[in-house]
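Per your request, structure below.
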């Protein structure tokens, strides 16, 4: 086990280098960028002062040198990789701040949504999946399946619009705020009031974030548990005197959790995840919106920084899933 973990950790570094190399190469073919944008602004400012004025080649060269684009692409990549090795992701062209600071300013809200949606999804889907498996074919199973599949097929942003109309003061009930993460008078509230105010703002967007994962987990556990309930060891347990429900909880339930264990590593990627459309619907400034604006503005350092961090967390999540898989099913050996 220890050798497996060490081998996986060591393989992460060449994998990250390969990912960064591919992304960096693709970025070189994307038209536009910070150099072109600044040249356009300088040219516009010069034209306003003196119509028909042109930017001199020296000014263009200075702008390229400012962003580091006066060097060949392989040299720029080597310089960038050297900074990353020192945990320096560079400076954002758009925000004029270190990339670490830009990401840290957006990270807490995405971290909250990622972990909260993960925990709530598992807390609800596990008992609901067991209940559906034990009541397969009943009215409870049919109605819950219809609701689950309805929530699954509706995109999160569309569900957000529906929730705003019905619960956010659109045309019916005015139970929840529809934008932002805190109220205007947040600073004047006591600590308990601030917590409640924040949670009040999070209800609708959190529901939109978790609905898809919740539906998948519920049906996955139900199908896995039904498959386990039909196996020979369940019939053997019942023949030996155990009740069916007791056999389910003592034997089948743990085996049915194996597929869910393989998805548990997604919690690490959810920390950097974000939904552009959901954040736009609820006016939340999170990681999803940061990725979108960085790509639109060709803020390469931010894009590369987020990709590197999310890729690293994805690999950590895969390793975590493997270890959790072994803990749920001791028969699996990692060599």
């Amino acid at each position: 086990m220890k050798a497996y973990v060490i081998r996986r950790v060591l393989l992460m570094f060449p994998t990250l280098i390969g990912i960064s190399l591919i992304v960096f190469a693709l970025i070189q073919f994307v038209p536009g960028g910070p150099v072109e944008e600044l040249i356009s602004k300088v040219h516009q400012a010069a034209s306003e002062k003196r119509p028909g004025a042109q930017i001199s080649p020296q000014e263009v060269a200075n702008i390229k040198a400012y962003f580091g684009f006066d060097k060949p692409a392989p040299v720029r990549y080597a310089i960038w990789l050297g900074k990353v090795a020192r945990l320096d992701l560079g400076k954002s062209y758009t925000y004029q701040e270190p990339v670490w600071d830009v990401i840290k300013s957006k990270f807490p809200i995405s971290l909250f949504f990622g972990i909260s949606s993960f925990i709530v999804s598992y807390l609800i889907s596990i008992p609901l999946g067991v209940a559906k498996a034990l009541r397969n074919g009943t009215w409870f199973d049919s109605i819950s399946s219809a609701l689950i599949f309805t929530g699954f097929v509706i995109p999160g942003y569309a569900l957000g619009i529906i929730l705003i109309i019905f619960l956010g003061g659109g045309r019916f009930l005015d139970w929840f705020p529809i934008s932002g993460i805190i109220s205007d008078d947040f600073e004047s509230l006591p600590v308990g009031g601030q917590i409640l105010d924040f949670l009040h703002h999070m209800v609708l967007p959190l529901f939109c974030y978790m609905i898809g994962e919740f539906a998948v987990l519920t049906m996955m556990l139900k199908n896995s548990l039904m498959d386990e309930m039909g196996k020979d060891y369940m019939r053997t347990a019942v023949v030996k005197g155990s009740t069916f429900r007791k056999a389910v909880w003592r034997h089948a339930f743990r085996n049915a959790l194996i597929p869910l264990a393989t998805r548990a590593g997604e919690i690490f990627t959810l920390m950097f995840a974000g939904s552009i459309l959901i954040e736009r619907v609820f006016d939340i400034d999170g990681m999803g919106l940061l990725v979108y604006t960085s790509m639109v503005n060709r803020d390469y350092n931010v894009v590369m920084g987020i990709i590197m961090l999310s890729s690293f967390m994805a690999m950590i999540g895969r390793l975590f899933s493997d270890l959790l898989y072994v803990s749920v099913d001791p028969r699996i050996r990692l060599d």
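Residues 2-85 form one domain.

Regards,
D.
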